[in-house]
């Protein structure tokens, strides 16, 4: 396929859109320009392929397809069946999973599907059996009332937010925290690492129905074999949310004890982070939970997005190619080069380094809050996000950390030498920024910010983004 075809496709699409609402066409063009110019170190973002992007913009969007492959509540779903089955097949092959459910619209939605599949399997089904009925509509008012109370009082043990866990792992502001009675495990204050003995102790005391592993801001590998043993020892269902690191699992950088799929009862993920697909979610599981997982829509999901499932099939096909494994390894090599570059210049990193795609800088080492550091970096053309560090003295809003990740820049082609230059730019900005009169205010010489911005765009100039796309 010629590169020219990509350019023509996007140009033609914009022309069609411009004829209806030019401001949308302009915003789409501006977004590409912005993405091309920024040194994107947001650990959860990436750049999907043109094929993935184009698979989303079509008439699959017009189709209702409630139900599952071959068993729909709507007629005429044969083509949706084709793409959903392809996406599921690619996912199963790629991750070695018995079952894949590719309908979730996002990572949070995938988690809701998993929670309700587990609750249905472990709480609802036994209650139906006990009452000797087939389904909930057959329960008496009293039995139904009792079952609803049961469903709403189950326990979950997950990683604490400030140690890098996710809001959907049972925290009060999120629906998961309202549905579950939650306790957290953290990390060792001295090393910053998960202390598996402590997790086991918490599990023994709390006896959760669900043990959750997975994170958004933990820069290390997790031993899922040990976590599964802990779950088994207390009869918990073991769930792994690999939203952030699915690309490293797909690319076989995380194998053996560090690959969640063979160890977990159920695995959830996003498809748009390190996996480099369209925005979306996915659930993988064994045969035991498959039927319950397939009830995700309409249990907690709105109608499937067939156009996004088409794009998932394309992206998962890409992830099965040998060059994806090379990409995944480069993500980790780059993160390590970035960490080393920062450490060599005197930065303080949570856990002292990284084994995955992300690095968490403790910016108290520079006398800054996360908020001040994030803004100072942004002024200098470097896009990151602030993040809590364990036992964060500045709380969840201002924070004391900056989270940076390499999936996006690695897609663009930057390598370890450029990561060292990136570390230099980050260190220069943070080192030259001083704290202002509040946790949000800071002082940074605008001339320095301009110089770094210029250096950042020079660095990117050698690595064009969507090089075939010229919107000219
Ligand atoms: C990003 C993330 C999610 C949420 O994904 P969305 O697609 O934004 O809903 C869930 N869990 C973890 C661990 C994440 O990092």
Automatic annotation (TrEMBL):
Cofactor (UniProt): pyridoxal 5'-phosphate
Organism classification: Bacteria, Bacillati, Actinomycetota, Actinomycetes, Micromonosporales
Subcellular location: Cytoplasm
Function: Catalyzes the reversible interconversion of serine and glycine with tetrahydrofolate (THF) serving as the one-carbon carrier. This reaction serves as the major source of one-carbon groups required for the biosynthesis of purines, thymidylate, methionine, and other important biomolecules. Also exhibits THF-independent aldolase activity toward beta-hydroxyamino acids, producing glycine and aldehydes, via a retro-aldol mechanism.
Reaction equations catalysed: (6R)-5,10-methylene-5,6,7,8-tetrahydrofolate + glycine + H2O = (6S)-5,6,7,8-tetrahydrofolate + L-serine
Family the entry assigns: Belongs to the SHMT family.
Binding of (6S)-5,6,7,8-tetrahydrofolate, residues: 161, 165-167
UniProt organism field: Micromonospora inositola
Name of protein: Serine hydroxymethyltransferase
Keywords associated with the record: Amino-acid biosynthesis, Cytoplasm, Methyltransferase, One-carbon metabolism, Pyridoxal phosphate, Transferase
Modified sites of kind N6-(pyridoxal phosphate)lysine: 273
Gene3D superfamilies referenced in this protein's UniProt entry, alphabetically: Aspartate Aminotransferase, domain 1, Type I PLP-dependent aspartate aminotransferase-like (Major domain)
Domain Serine hydroxymethyltransferase-like: 19-120, 153-426
């Amino acid at each position: 396929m010629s590169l020219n075809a990509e350019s023509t496709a996007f140009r033609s699409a914009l022309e069609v859109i411009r004829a209806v609402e030019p401001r949308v066409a302009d915003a789409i063009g501006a977004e590409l320009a912005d993405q091309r110019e920024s040194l994107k170190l947001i650990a959860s973002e990436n750049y999907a392929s043109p094929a993935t992007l184009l698979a989303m913009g079509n008439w699959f969007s017009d189709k209702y397809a409630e139900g599952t492959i071959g068993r729909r509540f709507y007629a005429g779903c044969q083509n949706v069946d084709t793409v959903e089955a392809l996406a599921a097949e690619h996912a199963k092959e790629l991750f070695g999973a018995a079952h894949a459910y590719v309908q979730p619209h996002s990572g949070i939605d995938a988690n809701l599907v998993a929670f309700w599949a587990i609750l249905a399997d472990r709480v609802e089904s036994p209650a139906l059996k006990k009452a000797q009925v087939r389904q909930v509509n057959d329960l008496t008012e009293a039995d139904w009332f009792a079952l609803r109370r049961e469903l709403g009082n189950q326990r979950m043990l997950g990683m604490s937010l400030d140690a890098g866990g996710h809001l959907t792992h049972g925290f009060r502001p999120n629906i998961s925290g309202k549905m579950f009675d939650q306790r957290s495990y953290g990390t060792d204050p001295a090393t910053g690492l998960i202390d598996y003995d402590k997790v086991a102790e918490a599990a023994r005391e709390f006896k959760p129905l669900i043990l959750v592993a997975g994170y958004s801001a933990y820069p290390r590998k997790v031993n899922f074999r040990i976590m599964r043993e802990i779950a088994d020892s207390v009869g918990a269902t073991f769930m792994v949310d690999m939203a952030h690191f699915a690309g490293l699992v797909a690319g076989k950088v995380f194998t053996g004890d560090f690959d969640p799929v063979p160890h977990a009862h159920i695995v959830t993920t996003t498809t748009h982070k390190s996996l480099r697909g369209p925005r979306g979610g996915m659930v993988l599981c064994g045969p035991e939970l498959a039927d319950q997982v397939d009830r995700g829509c309409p249990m907690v999901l709105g109608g499937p997005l067939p156009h996004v499932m088409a794009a998932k099939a394309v992206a998962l096909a890409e992830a099965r190619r040998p060059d994806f494994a090379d990409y995944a390894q480069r993500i980790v090599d780059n993160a390590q080069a970035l960490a080393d570059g920062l450490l060599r210049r005197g930065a303080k990193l949570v856990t002292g380094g990284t084994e995955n795609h992300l690095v968490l800088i403790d910016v108290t080492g520079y006398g800054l809050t996360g908020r001040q550091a994030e803004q100072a970096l942004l002024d200098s053309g470097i896009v990151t996000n602030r993040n809590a560090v364990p036992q964060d003295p500045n709380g969840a809003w201002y924070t004391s950390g900056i989270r940076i990740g390499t999936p996006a820049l690695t897609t663009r082609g930057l390598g370890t030498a450029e990561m060292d230059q990136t570390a230099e730019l980050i260190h220069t900005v943070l080192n030259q920024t001083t704290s202002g009169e509040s946790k949000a205010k800071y002082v940074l010489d605008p001339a320095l910010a301009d110089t770094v911005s210029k250096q950042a765009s020079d660095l990117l100039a050698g690595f064009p983004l969507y090089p075939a796309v010229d919107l000219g």
